[in-house]
Each structure stands twice: as C-alpha cells, then as structure tokens.
Write a structure and sequence with these properties.
The complex is a heterodimer of chains A (about 475) and B (about 290). Chain A has about 475 residues and is α/β, with parallel strands linked by helices. Chain A contains 15 helices and 18 strands. In chain A, strands 13-14-15-12-11-16-17 form a 7-stranded mixed sheet, sandwiched between helices. Chain A has a 6-stranded mixed sheet with strand order 8-7-6-9-10-18, with helices on both faces. In chain A, strand 4 and strand 5 form a beta hairpin. In chain A, helix 4 packs parallel to helix 5. Chain B is of the alpha/beta class and about 290 residues long. Chain B has a single domain, classed as Aldolase class I (TIM Barrel, Alpha-Beta Barrel), CATH 3.20.20. In chain B, strands 1-2-3-4-5-6-7-8 form an 8-stranded parallel barrel, surrounded by 8 helices. In chain B, helix 5 links the parallel strand 3 and strand 4. In chain B, helix 1 packs across helix 9 and helix 5 runs parallel beside helix 7. Chain B is globular. Classes of the chains: A alpha/beta (about 475), B alpha/beta (about 290). The interface between A and B is medium-sized, with 23 and 24 residues.
Chain lengths: ~475, ~290
C-alpha cells in the first residue's frame, strides 16, 4: 500500500524581495547605527534571501523614543473607533497580499506553503479583524467601574516558528488598546515582520506606532533592558523567558510570557481512532513540530498500543517531505542548522537511553535542513525525550491503563501549555480535561486556533493569555 | 463486529484537506485517464429507451472518437436494459452493470429483490448494484440488512456485487461507517455511496469514512474490496479530489477500475474536455465532445 508521489506543484508567485532591509523606525526605513547587516537564509535551499539590518542598543533606544512620541502625540489620544479603522485596514491588506506573504513565510522559515497559506496568514489577518472590533468596546474588558487605559510602549519579541502570526497576536491587541509597539522578530525569520511594516506604512498608520527592529538575542535583550518600556510580551523558549523575567524584576514593566511545552495526548481505546491518528499526526508534525503547543507525547491506552504503533508507522510513511514551496508538501524544512542539530542531539539521547526509534521511510532532499517524521516507543518518563521540548517532528509514545494513570503521566512535566484528550465518551472527556494542568485542552481535535480563544500556559510554559478578551486585559492598565 | 465511531469535525477537516491536494502535470494527465477508465457510465431515468442505452454504450466504448481516450469501466442501467447493453458492448472490455433489489428505495420483499437481481444476471449483467434496506438499518435490524446482502451475493456467485448504502439517508458518519463495515462483512465486493436519486450524494468526508472502513477490512481480513462513489460528481476537480483521498488512505494500488468506480454521466464530458486541453494546450469547444 504505497502511495505515489504527486507531480511537482510549486507555488509560482514570487514576492518582491529587496537585497537589503533597514530598520523600520518612526514610519521610515533607516540604516542601523550599528552599521551591521546579517543575512537571512532559506533553510530549504541554504541560500541567502536578503541582508537584514542588525539593531544595536542605540537603534533600540531610537525605536522606543519614536514609539513613545507616537503614543503620546497620536495613538493614545486617538478616538478608539479611528484606531479600529487602522487595524481593519491592516487586516484587509494582509488578506489582499496573502499569497505573497505566504510564500515569503515559507521561504524564510521553511514551513510548507500549504500551512502558511491555510493557517498562518489567514489566522494573522483574523487577529487584526477581531481586535479591530474590540478597540471601541474596551470598557467591557475590565471589571465594571474601571476605565480602560493603555499601558504605553510595548516591546514584542516573537519566535521563528510562526513569525507573522506571533507578531499579529501581540501587535493587534496592543494597538487596539492604544499602545504603541516595538517589534523584534526572530533572527532567522525577519521577512514577514518587515513586510508587515510595509503594510502598516501603506495603511497610513501614524509613524512610530509600529516599529520593527531586526537583530538577534542581544537586540532583544537591549529592548528588554530599555527603561522606556511599559510592557514586554515574549513568545519563545523557557530559557530566554527566565532571563527576561530576571531582567524585569524590580521594574514596573508588565510582562507576559508564552514559553515552551511538552503536551500530552491521552488516547483512550474507545476514541474515534481513524480521526485520532490524524489528530496525533497533525499535533506533532504540523510545522515540522516547531510548535510550542505541539502534542509531543502520546499516552495510549495499553489495549490499543500495538495497533496505534503499526498505524502510526504506516501513516508517517505517507507524509510528503520536501520542498516547502510545493503545494502538496506536508513536512518542510527545519528552520535552521542549529535547530536541526538540537533535534538530532535529542533523538540520539533517546536511542542511547534505550527507547525505540521509528522514522518515516523516505529520501531527504540533497540540500537544506530536513528531518524525517519520527516517533519513539519504549519511552520512560525519565528519558530526556519525554521531558525536554524537542521542537521538532519527534513524538514520544507511552502507555497507560487507567484514566488516573493517564492524568498523572500527562501532568508529569514542568510545562503546562496544552493537552489533548481523545475519547468518544463526553463524560470521560470532561472529567479528564478538568484535571489536566494545561492552558488549552483540545478534545477530539488538536492545534485549533481562533482569535476569540485565549491561549497561554501554566508553570514553565509561562503566564498571561493571548487571544480573546483575556488577551486584551494584558494590554490595559 | 466492533462498532467504530467517527468524529465528524476531524473527518471533514481531513477529507477537505486531502481533496485540496494540488494535482498537476504528469499526475493530472494520468489521473484524468484513470478517472475515465473507472467510470460506470450511468443512465437510470424513467425515460430511458433502448436507443438511449445503445448511444450510451457507444460512448462508453469510445468516449471521444479519433482520440486515444480509454474506454470507461462499465455501463450502468436498469435490469430491463441489460440485454440491450450486453449486445451493444459485445467485443469490448466495457462491463454491464445493473441496479437491483428494488432500486432506488429498496422497499420490497426479499423474494422480489432476488427476482430482479436474477433477471439482470440472466440477461448478462457482469455486475449488480443493489441497494440496502435503509428502513431496516435505521430501525436497528442489522441482521436483516446483512441477510439480504448475503442472499443476493449468493445469487451473484462470482459476479461482482456493489452494495449501495445511500449514505445521504443514514444520518451520521458513525452510521455510514457501520453500514460500510456491515456490508463488507456480509459479502459486498464493493461498497457504493449513493443511488443518485436523493439530494445528498457522495461527499469528500463520506468517501474518507468509506475508505477508512475498506482499510480496516483489509487489515482485518487481508482482502481488498472496492469503493464506488456516485451522484453529483460532475467535474474533473471533484474526481481528482476523490482520487487523492483514495491514494492517501488506501494507497496507489487501489487506483484501478477493479477497486474504484465513479458512477456518473456528465463527469465524462468534463474529463474529456480537460484531457483535450492538456493535449492541445487550449480549451476545445464543449460542442466537440459528443453527447451520449
């Protein structure tokens, strides 16, 4: 039962890419005072895309000053309904330019064009539309009697797994509440943030309301260290999240952190198994597993373990790994060489510690950073692959006998971002979901997102919520 | 046999994702011919006449005169036209299929159903498309449904039996899956989605649920059984979507007329139109495709 390869179906649209990008500060493109430019590369081809300005601490200071000025002069005093118009305009521009943005996201980050096209871009636009609607209704966000006030200047630091979407998660509610933003995209994926800056300028967003300072971890640290910030919103690794919390200790800067995860699926024997297997596959192999809420552990009721393992192997053999720009690709490129090395190192530790590795049987492209869809059986809770966030297409499969044991194992992690429960019985679903320590519990589905639904974690997965009405209160005094 | 439940949300999302695969180039060219060769070219109208059946048979043998388009898999008619179709298709590989068992509603006694099946077989039908008794199925009388399938398969012997589940009347994907499992266990060679006589016909999620049942039967019994989708499949894009669903659930080996059929009439013209477009690089006038 092999399946044939489809003829190549490459996305033909090519966005216009400049050779060099400056920093977007105060509504204009400017050269970095650091004088330094770094190259961002296409991880599927290992070829340079463009030279990107490196923002040093002087550049960060300039961006914060410009954001402060825009906050005081234009954005905070503006009628909320007028702010909403700008957000609608940005949302509409994202929709209109969706094909171009999707291609850019895929080239810069390695994700399949299908996912960029069907998930990243439309969900990003949806966040702008959703929060545009909230801009003039903010008195409904807080407790009765409290007047909603913006915080001031927000620093948004976003990761490389969903570059545009994570930016939208932060920018849309921040602007809706009357704050201004300095956005620091990830080092390896600056392109769509720069395109978003262009969209903001085309939308006539007042200069300085949105600033984009590209750079690396040091740029982010400089932003966090700047005393002019009123709020920091960070999505990324738990390690960096800790550093940020340390840097902000004793300051009045507000903070939300959306960090790592090691989510568990609990798969009961009475579940709709055909759909559950699809859900598990989608849960871990979506975006090559570069998803903070990825379902990276699978707890299977012991009686169906053999069947599930056999079917998982069969299923991953059918995933199409290859050129991210091919519209039929399921698994694209790993975002960077260093991430590929990290995945490889953790998988080796799994093998060394005695777990059994199963991998997708397929050829890898000759160039580019690729990793086969993989899962482990014979995993012990103490193994590194069962505890550490791999952030790659690697699943750890374990078993349970009773719901009690399943809940205990699912919660046996320092993280608490998401979880999944698969059972046909509504009563089991509710009873188990209630007892999982996770910000999001998906029942008979996984990795579903909506701007109206809050998202965030417990424990080492961070604090604060993004999305929905909860997400607004994080940007209001 | 274990009851299998189906989650509608995930099923629909997966089916629509698969049906949106981008089928281009060589795959598209090959799959258009594949789809043509899997068609059961069908006429099941009150106004059917010997002349119309003969004309349909001529088109089934040579869909587009002067081209190398393959012939279709079968012609599907009412039992009283089987003899005419048989003679019109003599010397070709096109098979004769007949609906039976009180098609389309299935509201009759088993004796009557067996009689019309036998009439079709005696007139030379290669394949029988029977309907299940949905009334019995929905009332929970699964035994009666299975017994009828079993009895009719008994009369068919080694001739091919397709069992029409009329999925649009079954109410849920879980019920559709149950009907599939039941029919396969009772001896159906092929499970078929619809009669084409009601509002809801084959859909992508229905096809996926049926594929899942066939895959499970294959795992359980080691035997490959067939799928036929019917009703409302009118254009090439839909046909390619269904082929993608089969390809990625059951596998490439299922993609041949022995295990996959599409019951249709208008679809053939669109497939020929797209085929000509790929061959010549431009769209031909629809008038150049002969009507049946």
């Amino acid at each position: 039962m092999s399946s044939s390869a489809y003829a190549a179906a490459p996305e033909s649209a090519r966005p216009e890419i400049r050779n060099e990008y400056g920093l977007f500060i105060g509504g204009t493109w400017c050269a970095p005072q650091s004088g330094r430019y770094d190259v961002t590369i296409d991880p599927a081809r290992e070829e340079p895309i463009a030279r990107i300005a490196y923002g040093g601490s002087d550049d960060v200071a300039r961006a914060v000053r410009s954001a402060r000025k825009a906050y005081e002069r234009w954005w905070a005093p503006m009628k909320p309904a007028t702010r909403a118009k700008y957000l609608f305009r940005i949302g509409r521009a994202i929709t209109e330019r969706s094909r171009e943005i999707a291609v850019l996201e895929s080239i810069d980050g390695g994700k399949p064009i299908r996912e960029a096209r069907d998930f990243d871009v439309p969900t990003a636009a949806a966040h702008f539309f959703y929060y545009a609607g909230w801009a003039d209704k903010l008195e409904w966000v807080l407790r009765a009697g409290r007047r909603p006030q913006p915080l001031g200047v927000c620093g948004a630091i976003v990761p490389w797994n969903f570059p545009l979407l994570m930016a939208a998660w932060k920018i849309a509610p921040a602007l809706a509440c009357g704050n201004t933003v300095v956005l620091k995209p990830a080092e390896t994926t600056p392109m769509t943030a720069l395109l978003l800056a262009e969209i903001a300028r085309d939308a006539d967003l007042p200069p300085g309301v949105l600033n984009v300072v590209t750079g690396d971890g040091a740029t982010g640290a400089a932003l966090v260290a700047h005393p002019g910030l009123d709020k920091v919103a960070f999505t990324g690794s738990t390690e960096v999240g800790r550093e940020i919390a340390r840097a902000l200790a004793g300051r009045e800067t507000r903070l939300t952190l959306e960090l790592g995860g090691k989510a568990a699926h609990i798969l009961f024997a009475d579940a709709p198994l055909d759909q559950a297997i699809e859900g598990v596959v989608r849960g871990i192999y979506f975006n090559q597993g570069h998803v903070c809420c990825a379902g990276s552990r699978l707890l299977v009721e012991e009686s169906i373990f053999d069947e599930i393992v056999a079917r998982l192997q069969q299923r991953i053999d059918r995933l199409r790994l290859g050129d991210p720009l091919d519209k039929n690709t399921d698994i694209g490129a790993i975002n960077s060489r260093s991430q590929l090395e990290r995945i490889d190192e953790l998988v080796r530790s799994g093998v060394d510690q005695g777990a059994t590795l199963m991998q997708q049987r397929c050829d890898l492209p000759e160039r580019g950073y690729f990793y086969r869809a993989s899962f482990f059986t014979n995993v012990q809770s103490a193994h590194r692959i069962a505890r550490e966030e791999i952030f790659g297409p690697v699943l750890a499969v374990m078993t349970f006998r009773t719901p009690e044991e399943a809940i205990e194992k699912a919660n046996d992690t320092p993280y608490g971002l998401s979880a999944g429960v698969w059972t046909e019985r509504g009563s089991t679903n509710m009873a188990v979901a209630q007892r999982l320590t996770a910000g999001v519990v998906w029942c008979n589905t996984f990795n579903r997102f909506d701007p109206a639904s809050p998202f965030g974690g417990f424990r080492e997965s961070g604090f604060g919520r993004e999305g929905g009405v909860h997400g607004l209160s994080e940007y209001l005094a | 046999m274990k009851r299998v439940c189906v989650d509608a949300v995930m099923l629909e999302s997966r089916a629509n994702e698969l049906a949106a695969r981008s089928i281009k180039g060589e795959t598209k060219r090959a799959w258009i011919d594949l789809a043509i060769s899997c068609i059961d070219l069908t006429t099941l109208e009150g106004r059917d006449s010997p002349g119309r059946v003969r004309s349909l048979c001529a088109k089934a043998r040579t869909p587009l005169p002067g081209s190398d388009a393959p012939s279709v898999a079968a012609v599907c008619v009412y039992p009283n036209f089987v003899g005419i179709a048989r003679r019109a298709l003599d010397g070709s590989d096109v098979r004769v299929a007949s609906v039976a068992a009180a098609f389309p509603a299935g509201q009759s006694e088993l004796a009557v159903k067996l009689a019309d099946t036998e009439q079709a077989l005696n007139a030379g039908a290669d394949e029988i498309d029977m309907v299940i008794d949905r009334g019995a199925f929905l009332s929970g009388d699964e035994h009666r449904v299975a017994a009828e399938i079993h009895a009719i398969k008994g009369r068919c012997g080694d001739r091919h039996l397709k069992v029409i589940l009329e999925t649009g009347e079954l109410g849920s994907y879980t019920a559709i899956r149950r009907a599939c499992d039941l029919a396969l266990e009772a001896g159906a060679d092929t499970i078929k989605s619809s009669t084409g006589k009601i509002g809801t016909n084959a859909t992508f999620p229905t096809a996926l649920a049926m594929c899942d049942s066939l895959a499970a039967f294959f795992r359980r019994a080691g035997v490959r059984r067939g799928l036929k989708l019917a009703g409302g499949i009118r254009n090439t894009k839909q046909a390619l979507g269904y082929l993608a669903i089969l390809n990625e659930t059951l596998g490439e080996s299922w993609l041949e007329p022995g295990s996959f059929r599409i019951g249709a009439s208008a679809l053939l013209d669109d497939l020929l139109l797209q085929r000509e477009r790929i061959r010549t690089g431009h769209y031909t006038r629809p008038e150049r495709i002969p009507k049946d």
